Amino acid sequence: MRSVPIYAILAYALLFTSMSYGQKRLNLFTECDCNRTLLKQELNYVNHTIDPVNAQVNLFIVTNYLSNGGRVYDLQFKGQQELAGNSLNFKVSTTAVMTGLERDEYLNKRIELGLAGFLAGTDYADLVDLMAEVPEVSEEEVDDNSEAPQDNWNNWIFEAQASFSANTESQRSKSQFQLGFDADRTTPDWRLRFSPNFFYRIERVTQTDGTEVTSIRRDQWFDGRVVKSISNHWSIGFFPGINSSTYSNIDLGISIMPAIEYNIFDYNEVPFKEFTIAYRLGWIYNQYTQQTVFLKTEESLARQSLDMNLSIRQRWGSVFAGVSAGNFLNDLSKNRLAIDARANVRLIKGLSISVSGSYDIINDQISLPAGEISDTDLLLGQVQLATNYSANVSFGFSYTFGSLYNNVINTRL
After folding, report:
1. pLDDT in tens, 202-253
2. What pTM does this model have?
3. For strand 26-31 and strand 57-65, is the pairing parallel, antiparallel, or unpaired?
4. CB 10 within 8 A of CB 112
5. Contact between 206 and 171 (Cβ < 8 Å)
6. In contact, 34 and 40? CB cutoff 8 Å
7. How many C-beta atoms lie closer than 10 Å to residue 252's C-beta?
8. Residue 79 parent element (H or E)
9. DSSP labels, 243-269
10. pLDDT digits over 171-182, tens only?
11. 3-state helix, strand, coil in the chain (%, to 5)
């Protein structure tokens, strides 16, 4: 079967002269994580309005980042006023090898094509010209395309990262190095991820008496994830891990955590809403660098945790709320409860608020070293400190007003 690429060429000149048809420009409101400058440049035949209420078309785009580095955009067109009742939803996928510009241009072409189809049943259709071309295909190419292309990598994506930074002053210097590697495989039935990492930081401080103090932090860890889809609501997983950390006073840590998760909503609705409940029960083994405050140099423990997360992404904004509780089975007093919530909501025309906060009750710091912590390590944050809680909160708002339509592109100084 011949492959038929379809592309839309919209008649920009006709749209610019649309007053001759007795039509004004279409008012489009777009809510997206995208390149708005390029979007205005490519869609220069509509009014890009800041008011979702008075727009004739609302375009809502949710971006989902895949473990293999690609992205999936969920596009929702919704008509209002004389276009009320018209809607169009579809997905656009991009790959990890695309550059930022290639990804933006690809998304913009799909937006144009969706907008052209959206206008098909309106008076604006007279201003749009849709063209499709079928390229000539030789018999050899037809034979070559008769078989589906093979993926020699079997859906595996690999990524290596390395970073180095250094900062030097007359009495203080800091250098740090991080190295990481990710191996991901994602299919409808399986999600696999293996990620070894290494982090090293050294800080030197010259004190007032001229003596130099050096503090070193070194962390190494390996995280694994094997998740199997069971149905549109259930999945099971296996999470192995190995770590070593001067910050956490761990020479060698090993963990094996099986898990099961239930999503109250269908997994196909994840781009817009999800409510998951996950339970983990596993084994942890630690060898400590120094004896802990519980007089342990090594120990083997069983741990359980329950996580509940609600995430909603809609045209009016996004909301997330999560609760996580866990404890060690050999001593239920060693436990932790974490509450996390954040929201970004458009209240009324032009006014949006953002709020976030978290609160942790911490009673499970089993690796804290016994003895005194040096002033240097304390001030430089090189070791973990004892605490029974952690809290943070933030709040902000934005208010946009003025000209409803601004289609001008100007990136000058």
Report:
1. 998 888 888 888 888 999 999 999 999 999 999 999 999 999 999 999 999 9
2. 0.69
3. parallel
4. yes
5. yes
6. no
7. 14
8. strand 71-79
9. EEETTTTEEEEEEEEEEEEEESS-GGG
10. 889 999 999 999
11. 15, 50, 35
